[in-house]
């Protein structure tokens, strides 16, 4: 192994260890942070409510495209009545959690990283430590919990709006019977399918919030450092979302 490869592996292991230690400190800080629910609610609003527009628009157009593509595919097999099943399973198990996570990383994740990174660059975190105020408890933990709570809620909204979009195209435009669309969907969806979507959204919320908070907390205290940390958040969140999606899908199968 060359020196460059060895140094790359060592750096990757170092970053993994730093992230693991930070996650342990973050979990320890989450317990006392729960005693300040107003901070958590504010972060749920910042990460969730402010992402509603992009989530709802993306969910609507994803459902509409799914309705068009699904109808075209099922029509070739004479099974257009199964459009509701195809749309529901796709949104519940894959498209809903994954696309919401990617949108969350691009909108809320970058905002969390840049906010905490700016606090690091302007010495606000250092000032809190000097005043014996734990920044993990008052800054990092509420933002982590806010993202953890917000992402599953956003995923549920994405799925509901996506189903409406699929119904809008399939029933209103393509002529699929409304009763068949909804009745077959309800009869075919099992608790396992819903559970898979919920588990994925919770795992994605925890991992993406951890990445965003960790990158911001350890960002270099310069404008360039904050920019690099924000970029790393998007890249790492996207890769981890797709990797974890495969792992969780394989586990449920």
Keywords:
253 residues; mainly alpha; 9 helices; 87% helix; 0% strand; elongated
Give a structural overview.
The chain has one domain (36-252). α4 (83-121) packs antiparallel against α9 (223-252) and α8 (191-217) runs antiparallel to α9 (223-252). The protein is elongated. Helices cover 87% and strands 0% of the residues. The protein starts with a helix and ends with a helix. The chain is an all-alpha fold and 253 residues long.
Distance linking N and C termini: 38 Å
Number of helices: 9
Computed structural class = mainly alpha
Calculate Rg over CA atoms. 21 Å
Assembly context of the chains: single chain
What is the ordering of alpha helices and beta strands? HHHHHHHHH
Number of DSSP E strands? 0
Q: Helical content, roughly?
A: over 70%
Average pLDDT over all residues: 90
- Shape descriptor: elongated
In short:
The chain is mainly α and 253 residues long.
Write the layout of secondary structure elements.
Elements: H1 3-33, H2 37-47, H3 52-75, H4 83-121, H5 124-130, H6 135-173, H7 178-188, H8 191-217, H9 223-252
Helix pairs in contact: 1-6, 2-6, 3-4, 3-6, 4-6, 4-7, 4-8, 4-9, 6-8, 8-9
């Amino acid at each position: 192994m060359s020196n460059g490869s060895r140094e790359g592996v060592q750096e990757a292991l170092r970053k993994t260890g730093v992230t693991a230690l930070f996650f342990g400190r973050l979990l320890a800080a989450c317990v006392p942070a729960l005693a300040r629910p107003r901070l958590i609610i504010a972060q749920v609003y910042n990460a969730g409510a402010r992402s509603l527009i992009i989530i709802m628009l993306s969910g609507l157009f994803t459902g509409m495209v799914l309705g068009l593509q699904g109808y075209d595919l099922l029509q070739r097999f004479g099974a257009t009545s199964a459009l509701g099943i195809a749309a529901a399973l796709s949104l519940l198990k894959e498209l809903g959690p994954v696309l919401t996570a990617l949108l969350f990383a691009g909108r809320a994740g970058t905002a969390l990283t840049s906010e905490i990174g700016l606090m690091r660059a302007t010495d606000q975190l250092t000032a809190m430590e000097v005043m014996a105020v734990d920044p993990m408890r008052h800054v990092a933990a509420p933002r982590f919990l806010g993202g953890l709570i917000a992402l599953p809620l956003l995923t549920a909204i994405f799925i509901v709006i996506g189903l409406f979009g699929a119904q809008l195209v399939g029933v209103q435009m393509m002529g699929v019977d409304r009763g068949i669309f909804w009745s077959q969907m309800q009869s075919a969806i099992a608790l396992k399918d819903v559970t898979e979507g919920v588990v994925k959204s919770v795992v994605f919320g925890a991992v993406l919030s951890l990445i965003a908070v960790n990158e911001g907390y350890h960002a270099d205290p310069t404008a360039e450092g904050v920019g690099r940390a924000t970029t790393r958040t998007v890249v790492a969140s996207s890769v981890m979302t797709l990797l974890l999606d495969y792992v969780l899908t394989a586990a449920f199968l």
